[in-house]
Design goal:
CATH class of the largest domain: Alpha Beta
Low-confidence stretches: 4-12, 442-451
Helix content: 25-40%
Largest sheet: 5 strands, mixed
Structural class: alpha/beta
Strand order of the largest sheet: 1-7-6-9-8
Radius of gyration: 23 Å
Number of helices: 16
Length: about 450
């Protein structure tokens, strides 16, 4: 896993002042265990939170810092924390870490868990203190076996040091933390599906309201945050709101830094901690090094498979939620993918939609039936068997499966890249439409939904 610094040519060393998430990383890529982590000021923020801050002050500090969820949705973390009940008589509450990182082209949380497991534990410890939660779970993607091994070791180290368990740091506060590996479903990235899976149920999203803050795991108040989100908490507590806000570039409405990356046929694919507000062009040219020799950039996705495609001329957009929204899509996870000029967009979209169709929980009709239908149409177009009207049908599905039309956000994310691909590369789709003389009458065309 490549990790560079703010400097395009690696001339600027990572530091605590500029790289709150990654400055402790080892050059050899090995994990930072407890002794080294504490030597690098680890758990100092937790000690400050326990000794000097009231629980509500921790929540307010995170809210004032403008920290937003780093899993893709970007909901303000402090606001989410504020939804937890104030009633002190509710003494069973849960904190869940969403580590089910199954978004295609996204691997940022894996790096944090494998190389800085104590940073996540410290973030959860401070968050648990703020939210008055007595038990936490890291819901981990099952395929992340190294991350599971490292997290479990770090949990045991923290327990032995009195940083987890009973009477933490002499405060009278108890917090237990467990690593739970999932069974391998993309839908578990949705927080209520994650909760159902943790309870041993089918991983279907739940109806909201009630929200998890009111009725979550086993019916108790629950807060769910992403790995990278929780890893930002120690630095905010240690160094303050003004410093954290100062990290972002001018013009960005999102605060702090973000793990961003680029994959595809670029010269230097990798992952970097960068300030919100850098441009896509900086990320692509200065860090990823541009396209490999012999390839040209055809399109790019800014943040995972569930974000819309953009063109090379969109690279000047700033990398924050509002900046990417200005060019018509979402920031998502911030890990971009370059599509080179050798790729057929129909084939790429068919592959993506097959994944999303397979990972649908099947609960609601638009997603359960609409995504397989899009796959069948794309397969026909890819093979030159498309019929007149197929592109319009695909665009219709993009509308039918859009935001607010389905039970959760799975289908809207699945069809966003499809709609953008047709918008920018329609001739490639039209090339797969059979001549009118070969067209099959619409009523005679068998479409078996869900097969």
């Amino acid at each position: 896993m490549t990790l560079t610094s703010f400097g395009p040519a690696n001339r600027i060393k990572r530091s605590a002042e500029t790289h709150p998430l990654t400055w402790r990383l080892r050059d050899d890529g090995e994990a930072v265990w407890l002794d080294e982590y504490q030597a690098k000021n680890g758990y100092a923020a937790a000690r400050k939170a326990f000794a000097d801050m009231a629980q509500d002050d921790i929540v307010q500090t995170v809210k004032d810092a403008g920290l937003k969820g780093r899993g893709g949705a970007g909901f303000p973390t402090g606001v989410k924390w504020g939804l937890m009940p104030k009633d002190e008589s509710i003494n069973i509450r849960y904190l869940l870490c969403n580590a089910d990182e199954m978004e295609p082209n996204t691997w940022k949380d894996r790096m944090l868990m494998e190389q800085l497991p104590h940073l996540l534990i410290e973030g959860m410890l401070i968050s648990a203190r703020a939210l008055k939660t007595y038990r936490g779970y890291i819901f981990l993607r099952g395929e992340y076996t190294t991350a599971a091994k490292h997290l479990n070791r770090a949990v045991e180290e923290a327990k032995a040091a009195g940083l987890l368990g009973k009477n933490i740091l002499g405060s009278g506060f108890d917090f237990e933390l467990f690593v739970h590996t999932g069974a391998g479903r993309y839908i578990c990235g949705e927080e209520t599906a994650l909760i159902n899976s943790l309870e041993g149920r089918r991983a279907n999203p739940r109806s909201k309201p009630p929200f998890p803050a009111a009725v979550g795991v086993w019916g108790k108040p629950t807060c769910v945050n992403n790995v990278e989100t929780l890893c930002n908490v120690p630095a905010i507590i240690a160094d303050g709101v003004d410093w954290y806000k100062s990290l972002a570039r001018e013009g960005s409405e999102d605060m702090g830094t973000k793990l961003m990356g680029f994959s595809g046929k670029v010269k230097n694919p990798g992952l970097w901690e960068l300030p919100f507000g850098v441009t896509g062009r900086e990320l692509f040219e200065d860090y990823a090094g541009g396209m490999r020799d012999g390839y040209k950039l055809k399109a790019w996705q800014p943040g995972g498979a569930g974000t819309g495609f953009l063109l090379p001329e969109h690279l000047d957009a700033q990398m924050y939620a509002g900046g990417i929204a200005k060019v018509g899509t979402r920031m998502g996870t911030g890990l971009a993918m370059a599509v080179d000029d050798s790729v057929n967009m129909v084939s790429l979209l068919r592959n993506m939609e097959q994944f999303f169709a397979r990972e649908s929980c099947g609960f609601c009709t638009p997603c359960r039936d609409g995504l397989p239908w899009s796959v069948k149409l794309l397969m026909a177009i890819e093979e030159g068997r498309g019929q007149p009207g197929d592109i319009e049908t695909l665009l219709g599905l993009v509308g039918f499966l859009g935001p607010g039309k389905t039970f959760c956000a799975h289908a809207p994310g699945a069809v966003e890249p499809l709609g953008s691909a047709i918008k920018y590369f329609r001739p490639e789709f039209e090339a797969g439409i059979a001549p009118a003389s070969a067209a099959v009458p619409p009523l005679a065309r068998p479409i078996v939904i869900g097969a």
